[in-house]
């Protein structure tokens, strides 16, 4: 069993040896040597070899004849092969000889191809490098020409496209290393240009603003011309409509006539073209710097820097000079700088994308508006010249209109102008106060003499005066008022014109202008003119004739108030009967002045009477009175008669100009008589007069009778009956009581309405009686020895006692 297996194994190994590559037979043979049947295997191997040898021999015997035949044929072929070899050798030699030239040409061709390839490679490399060098050369040229924004674009193109395509060459590396330095240089140089630009516009803001304001002024003038042409054309159309409707229909499509259009065209042609901000300022540094910083990715830094610097410049521009208020040129330079600043900002706003925005510009404008208004309020408060204020107002209007055309809100400026209107009005009032005072001081307070119709028409042109009776009188003649009436009226009109000038171009309605003028005129009338008239009336050394003329003058000025109303309505185109229209207070002003003059007349008359009474020199102890009035009283009566003769020039009322004494003259006369009566009574009762004799009373009675004769003579017509005598009734009853010694009647009838001495006050009678009592005692030291004197003294004592009882009873 074991031998069979061994034989099978040896058979397998043999087959494996026969079929396996000799390189892999090692492991098979090792398995044989590792086993115990080595000899047996060797025997099998030799047997197998013998079998194969026999098979080989059989095969060789089978093919031997063919092999011999093949060798024989091969030997035959060897000769031919030798011939062929010789031919081939000969052919090869020929080929070798012929191929040497070809190889030389081929070698030359190969060398040429190599050079050609190298040249192509070089050209290709140069094709990529030359743009870099050209771009870098262009960059250097742009830097030298200070064209920094194109240089930055070139630098960007060089870095992003040219250098990567060129390859890693040394010069490319150097260029790449220089790019950040060039960017920094461009940024610094562009920033330097921007700083120069900011400094330039700061210096040229005045010129830019002046140019912008001139443009606005020209445009406003054109607009006004167009408006006036439209109004005139409208007026012509209305007139043509009244004549012929067909012409209106032909011209309906065009609001201007051919002549109007020609005028406008001529004005436009003659108007020189005024350069704008872009013509005066080169904004390229801003644009260039903005683009450069945008390309560099640092736009926010640039915007913040620009806005910060412009804010600083705005604060400098908005700081006014300390002496700006002295001249109009100071205000003009201030406004020009502000306008120039905001014209530049407006141009930057509309020509750049986001460098400044509307919110930033509005913020700056709010700052400028507040500071400008504050500066104008401060500096205009120092101004005392109305012409300068008016010029300043026109300049502010032009300033506001200019900025409004650039889209800036200017309502606060016009509100400030309305505030300045009050200041302007106060300055006008001060100026007109001086004018009025000068007129009143220079007036001669005499009626105006008129020698010719031309002179009369000249005065009538200055003052609306109408008097048919005076017109009928021949020349020369006199007007009832003095020079200050037409002068004051002319000044009132000049004041109204001055107020109207300020209200122009303030975008106010006609009603607002009318209301403003009327209120200002009322202030002029009630404050300025009223005070000036009071000053003229109250000043020292003013005579009664002057006061009389002032009354006449104020009467005529009062009548002219409705002409002033019409004058204001004509220049403002507002009817005087408009609802809520302010009325002029001229009537009340002139009435108050006239009443003040009347009171001053009364006061002056009383003072003159007092001056005459100071000359009174009574002998209060005289035994008997004289037969005629005292000298001082005669002089006083003569003065009063001459004075009241002047009053015949006073008007009877505020409308008529009759040459008759009026209420003023009657009141003055009554007041003078009352004051004279009261003063005489006080003279009789004053404390310095300790004794009064009956003789002194008789003389005093003569003087009072002289006064009564004056009153009875009617120095001023118009009194009914003996009305003027009533001024002396108290004095007359007192003197009658003492001269007639009618004490029984007085004491018996006291307190009754029908009492004869109703006007005699018991205190007054007692005081005078005490003076007479002392006189009786002191003048006659022997009175006690004479029975009549003793009886008289007793009677006086009795009357005194009764008067005291009467007074005590009344007090109780």
Automatic annotation (TrEMBL):
Species of the source: Culter alburnus
Record-stated family: Belongs to the SEC15 family.
Entry's Gene Ontology cellular component terms: exocyst; plasma membrane
InterPro entries: EXOC6/Sec15, EXOC6/Sec15_C, EXOC6/Sec15_C_dom1, EXOC6_Sec15_N, EXOC6PINT-1/Sec15/Tip20_C_dom2
Domain Exocyst complex component EXOC6/Sec15 N-terminal: residue ranges: 44-213
Keyword terms, alphabetized: Exocytosis, Transport
Region (Disordered): 221-263
Domain of life: Eukaryota
GO terms for biological process, alphabetical: Golgi to plasma membrane transport; intracellular protein transport; vesicle tethering involved in exocytosis
Name of the molecule in the record: Exocyst complex component
Entry keyword annotation includes Transport: yes
Function recorded in the entry: Component of the exocyst complex involved in the docking of exocytic vesicles with fusion sites on the plasma membrane.
Domain Exocyst complex subunit EXOC6/Sec15 C-terminal: 412-771
């Amino acid at each position: 069993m074991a031998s069979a297996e061994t034989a099978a194994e040896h058979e397998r190994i043999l087959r494996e040896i026969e079929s396996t590559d000799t390189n892999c037979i090692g492991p098979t043979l090792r398995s044989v040597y590792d086993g115990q049947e080595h000899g047996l295997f060797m025997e099998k191997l030799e047997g197998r070899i013998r079998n194969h040898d026999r098979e080989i021999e059989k095969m060789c015997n089978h093919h031997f004849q063919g092999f011999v035949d093949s060798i024989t044929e091969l030997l035959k072929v060897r000769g031919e092969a030798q011939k062929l070899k010789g031919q081939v050798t000969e052919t090869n030699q020929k080929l070798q000889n012929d191929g040497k030239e070809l190889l030389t040409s081929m070698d030359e061709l190969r060398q040429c191809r190599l050079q050609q390839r190298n040249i192509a490679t070089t050209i290709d490399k140069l094709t990529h490098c030359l743009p870099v060098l050209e771009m870098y050369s262009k960059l250097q040229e742009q830097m030298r020409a200070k064209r920094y924004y194109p240089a930055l674009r070139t630098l960007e193109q060089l870095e992003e496209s040219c250098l990567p395509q060129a390859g890693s060459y040394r010069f490319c590396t150097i260029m790449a290393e220089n790019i950040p330095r060039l960017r920094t240089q461009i940024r610094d140089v562009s920033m330097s240009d921007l700083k120069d630009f900011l400094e330039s516009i700061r210096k040229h803001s005045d010129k830019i603003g002046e140019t912008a304001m001139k443009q606005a002024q020209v445009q406003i003038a054109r607009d006004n011309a167009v408006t006036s042409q439209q109004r005139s054309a409208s007026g012509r159309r209305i007139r043509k409509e009244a004549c012929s409707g067909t012409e209106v229909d032909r011209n309906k499509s065009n609001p201007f006539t051919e002549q109007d259009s020609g005028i406008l065209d001529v004005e436009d042609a003659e108007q020189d073209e005024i350069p704008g901000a872009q013509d005066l300022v080169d904004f390229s540094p801003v644009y260039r710097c903005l683009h450069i910083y945008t390309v560099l990715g640092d736009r926010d830094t640039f915007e913040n820097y620009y806005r910060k610097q412009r804010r600083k410049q705005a604060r400098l521009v908005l700081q006014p000079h300390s002496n700006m208020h002295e001249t109009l040129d100071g205000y003009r330079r201030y406004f020009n700088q502000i306008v120039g600043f905001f014209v530049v900002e407006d141009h930057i706003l509309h020509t750049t994308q986001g460098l400044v925005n509307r919110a930033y510009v509005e913020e700056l404008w709010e700052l400028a508006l507040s500071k400008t208004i504050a500066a104008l309020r401060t500096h205009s408060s120092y101004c005392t010249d109305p012409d300068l204020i008016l010029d300043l107002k026109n300049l502010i209007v032009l300033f506001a209109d200019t900025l409004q055309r650039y889209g800036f809100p200017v309502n606060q400026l016009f509100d400030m102008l309305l505030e300045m209107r009050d200041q302007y009005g106060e300055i006008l009032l001060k100026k007109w106060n001086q004018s009025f005072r000068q007129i009143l001081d220079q007036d001669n307070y005499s009626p105006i003499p008129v020698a010719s119709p031309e002179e009369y028409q000249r005065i009538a042109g200055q003052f609306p005066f109408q008097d048919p009776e005076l017109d009928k009188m021949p020349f020369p003649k006199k007007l009832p008022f003095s020079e200050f009436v037409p002068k004051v009226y002319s000044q009132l009109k000049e004041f109204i014109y001055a107020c109207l000038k300020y209200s122009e171009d303030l975008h106010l309605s006609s009603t607002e202008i009318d209301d403003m003028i009327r209120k200002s005129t009322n202030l002029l009338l009630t404050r300025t003119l009223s005070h000036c008239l009071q000053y003229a009336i109250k000043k020292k050394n003013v005579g009664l004739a002057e006061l009389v003329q002032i009354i006449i003058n104020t009467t005529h000025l009062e009548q002219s108030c409705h002409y002033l109303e019409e004058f204001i309505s004509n220049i403002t185109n507002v009817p005087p009967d408009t609802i809520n229209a302010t009325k002029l207070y001229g009537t009340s002003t002139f009435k108050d002045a006239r009443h003040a003059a009347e009171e001053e007349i009364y006061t002056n008359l009383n003072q003159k009477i007092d001056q005459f009474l100071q000359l009174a020199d009574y002998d209060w102890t005289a035994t008997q009175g004289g037969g005629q009035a005292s000298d001082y009283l005669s002089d006083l009566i003569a003065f009063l008669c001459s004075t009241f003769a002047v009053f015949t020039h006073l008007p009877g009322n505020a409308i008529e100009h009759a040459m008759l004494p009026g209420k003023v003259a009657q009141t003055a006369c009554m007041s003078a008589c009352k004051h004279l009566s009261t003063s005489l009574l006080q003279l009789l009762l004053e404390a310095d007069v300790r004794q009064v004799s009956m003789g002194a009373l008789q003389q005093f009675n003569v003087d009072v009778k002289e006064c009564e004769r004056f009153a009875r003579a009617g120095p001023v017509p118009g009194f009914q009956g003996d009305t003027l005598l009533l001024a002396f009734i108290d004095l007359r009853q007192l003197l009658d009581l003492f001269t007639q010694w009618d004490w029984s009647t007085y004491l018996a009838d006291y307190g009754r309405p029908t009492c004869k001495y109703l006007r005699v006050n018991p205190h007054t009678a007692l005081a005078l009686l005490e003076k007479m009592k002392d006189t009786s005692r002191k003048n006659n030291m022997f009175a006690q020895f004479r029975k009549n004197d003793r009886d008289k003294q007793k009677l006086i004592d009795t009357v005194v006692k009764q008067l005291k009882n009467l007074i005590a009873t009344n007090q109780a």
